[in-house]
Structure formats: structure tokens, C-alpha cells
Amino acid sequence: MFAKLLRCHQTLVDACARVRCLGPLALRLGFGYFWLETGWAKLHNLDGAIARFVDWGIPWPAFNAPLSAGTEFIGGCLLMLGLFTRFTSLVMAFNMVVAIAFVVIKTVMGLDDFVELDEFLYILIFFWLFLAGPGKASLDHLIARRLGLRCAD
């Protein structure tokens, strides 16, 4: 019984290894689209985004709201393409750190509240993308191979 279970597990491991590139690709496409869409919405309602930044007490709202919106839109595009993924992940994570520091930290009463923040989850995903990279199904991987650079994937 145990040997049969181990063989089934090994079959599953082998099958997953063959399609390993689909995990990072699916994450990048879904997560990237989320950011592309939120950035697009903010860019098309900059007055509303600036007003929210004013309400939140973010410095220089007329500068920072379009910057944040553009970061989300361009960052989402780059994540979907798998282009400059590690750098993009750092920039996007920083955007979330600012959101936590200026907006949502006011509602956090303890560690449980903090780890339940959407922004904290986003930071964790960006951290994973930064460390793991975009995967083989990405422009980063293609460019690295064309340039003869070592791919981390």
C-alpha cells in the first residue's frame, strides 16, 4: 500500500515537473492583470485618485497618485510579459509598503490584523516573484538565453 502511494506521488511529481513553467506563468498573468487593471482605472480617474491620496494624507498627492497609478499599470504589464520581473517586483512591493505605512496601518490593531491585509499578501507575492523569478515562460528567460546568460529557472 505504501509503495503504491509512493509510486503515485512520484508520478504526480514527474507530471508537475514537465509543466513547472505554468505555475509562475499563471501567477504572473493573473496577478499582473490585476495590477494592470487597477492602474488603468486610476489613470482614467486621476481626479478621484488624487482626492483619495489627499484624504489618506499622502504627501504631494498630485504627483504621487499618477506615479502610483502608472507604477501599477506598467508594473502589471511587465509582470504579465515576464519582463524585468525582479525589478518590477521590488518597485511594486515598495508601492504596497507605502500603502501600508500611509493608509492601512491606522486600522491595524495587532499581528492578526497585519497579516490579513491584502497589501501584506501582495508584498509576499512580490517577494516570491523577486526570489523565484518569472519562470521559463517569460521574456526575461528568453532574453537571458539569447544573451547567453545563466537563467535561474
Extended strand count: 0
Cα separation of the termini: 35 Å
Strand % is under 5%
Report the mean per-residue pLDDT as an integer.
92
Shape verdict: globular
The biggest sheet, with number of strands, parallel, antiparallel or mixed sense and barrel status, is:
none
Helix count equals 8
Structural class: mainly alpha
Low-confidence stretches: none
Radius of gyration, in Å, reads 19 Å
- How do the helices and strands follow one another from N- to C-terminus? HHHHHHHH
> How many structural domains does the protein architecture include?
1
Q: SSE layout and pairings?
A:
Blueprint: H1 2-18, H2 22-43, H3 46-56, H4 61-81, H5 85-102, H6 111-115, H7 118-132, H8 139-146
Helix pairs in contact: 2-4, 3-4, 4-5, 5-7
Name some characteristics of this structure:
153 residues, mainly alpha, 8 helices, 0% strand
Task: Describe the fold and architecture.
There is one protein chain. The protein has 153 residues and is mainly α. The chain has one domain. Helices cover 76% and strands 0% of the residues. It is built from 8 helices and no strands. The chain has helices spanning 2-18, 22-43, 46-56, 61-81, 85-102, 111-115, 118-132, 139-146. The protein is globular, with a radius of gyration of 19 Å. It starts with a helix and ends in a 7-residue tail after the last helix.
